Amino acid sequence: MDRIKMTTPIVEMDGDEMTRILWQMIKDNLLLPYIDLKTEYYDLGLAFRDQTDDQVTVDSANAAKKYKVAVKCATITPNSDRVKEYNLKEMWKSPNATIRAFLDGTVFRAPIVVKGIEPCVKNWKKPITIARHAYGDVYKGTEMKIPGAGKVELVYTAEDGTETRETVHSFQGPGIIQGMHNLSSSIESFAKSCFNYALDTKQDLWFATKDTISKKYDHTFKDIFQNIFDADFSNQFKDAGISYFYTLIDDAVARVMKADGGFIWACKNYDGDVMSDMVSSAFGSLAMMTSVLVSPDGDYEYEAAHGTVQRHYYQHLKGQETSTNSIATIFAWSGAIRKRGELDGNQELADFADRLEQAARDTIEAGEMTKDLALITTIPNPTVLNSENFIKAIAKRL
Ligand code: NAP
Ligand code: MG
Question: Within 13 A of 96's CA, how many CA atoms are on the CB side?
Answer without folding.
Answer: 21
